[in-house]
Amino acid sequence: MALRSAFLSVLLSVIVVALKGGAYLLTGSVALFSDALESVINVVAAGAALAALWVASRPADAEHPYGHQKAEYFSAMLEGALIVAASLTIMYSAAQALQHPKPLESLGLGVAVSSVATLLNWAYGQYLLRVGKRLQSPALMADGHHLLSDVVTSVGVLIGVGLVKLTGWHALDPIAAVLVALYVLWVGYKLVANSLNSLLDEAASPEVQQQLKTLVSQQAEGALEAHDFRTRYAGSITFIDFHLVVPGTMTVEAAHAICDRLEASIEQQMPGSEVTIHVEPEANAKQHGIIVL
Questions:
Q1: Transmembrane ranges (predicted)?
Q2: What is the pLDDT of residue 242?
Q3: pLDDT on residue 289
């Protein structure tokens, strides 16, 4: 599902580039040029996402015992960096156009062609976000957010070009391009920042951590306490580890049975989890731990 969605994203991006490039050639609008340039970045980013998903789907091996899921974050970082590069190029083009504004041609047809491309981006961006959220895929979600940011910039461009047609003030075209570039720069920054957090093993959300602790408290019957919870994400996998305190007289077999039951319960309630439990004797209990009910 993820690889197919990424492959379709590449095909869609190529179609959108052709449409937006045609709109720019029809009109000569620097704002439409900026929109087309961002769509070129979409093609490269979608290709990178497809490659990252292929790498991430490979099973764990001797060199990568925790799997290859983090490859998706490199794709998201590349996409963010490309967006930043595109925004700087747009600003340069807009500055040139502000110094030498020129009349636009065939605005009606150019706007119609660009509008079709924008609708395609909106529809597939929504789809990628749904699939990415369901599969917990950073690459698909980054691609979906990028397409929807492209929709926002396209709408801004279309408004700017429309105002040029209504007012005859050609400087509005490069001004719209500058606004687009600033928004694109912000989106690129957020993508890079989020990917860096994930590469640095950012913990799961407070809601997920609370769900985990509640589950352990309710399902670890026979144990006394759990503490030192740690979580991190790697693509669609959530790595979880914690310490479980059991009575000092409990046998290894009985403690292992509790761990097996806990692991099965957590993986059922939190799909995609990889759980590691360290068993400790009663003397190692901590006051701040989670009491088992």
A1: 6-27, 39-56, 76-95, 107-124, 171-189
A2: 92
A3: 63
Nearest residue to 235 via CA among 186, 273, 187: 273
**pLDDT tens profile 53-79:** 677 667 767 776 666 666 666 766 777
Strand pairing category for 225-234 and 237-246: antiparallel
Domain assignments of the chain as residue spans, ordered by start: 2-199, 206-291
Burial code of 230-265, b = ≥16 C-beta within 10 A, e = fewer?
ebbbbbbbbbbebbbbbeeebeeeebeebbeebbeb
| pLDDT tens for each residue of 233-243 | 776 678 899 99
What is the C-alpha separation between 186 and 149, in angstroms, rounded? 10
Q: Domain 206-291: which CATH class?
A: alpha beta
DSSP letter string, the chain = -HHHHHHHHHHHHHHHHHHHHHHHHHH--HHHHHHHHHHHHHHHHHHHHHHHHHHHTSPP-SS-TT-STTHHHHHHHHHHHHHHHHHHHHHHHHHHHHHS------HHHHHHHHHHHHHHHHHHHHHHHHHHHHHT-HHHHHHHHHHHHHHHHHHHHHHHHHHHHHH--TTHHHHHHHHHHHHHHHHHHHHHHHHHHHHTTPPPPHHHHHHHHHHHHHH-BTB-EEEEEEEEEETTEEEEEEEEEE-TT--HHHHHHHHHHHHHHHHHHSTTEEEEEEEEEGGG--TTSEEP-
CATH class belonging to 2-199: mainly alpha
Query: What count of Cα atoms within 13 Å lies in the side-chain half-sphere of residue 194?
Result: 19
Question: Which range has the worst mean pLDDT, 184-198, 200-214, 231-245?
Answer: 184-198
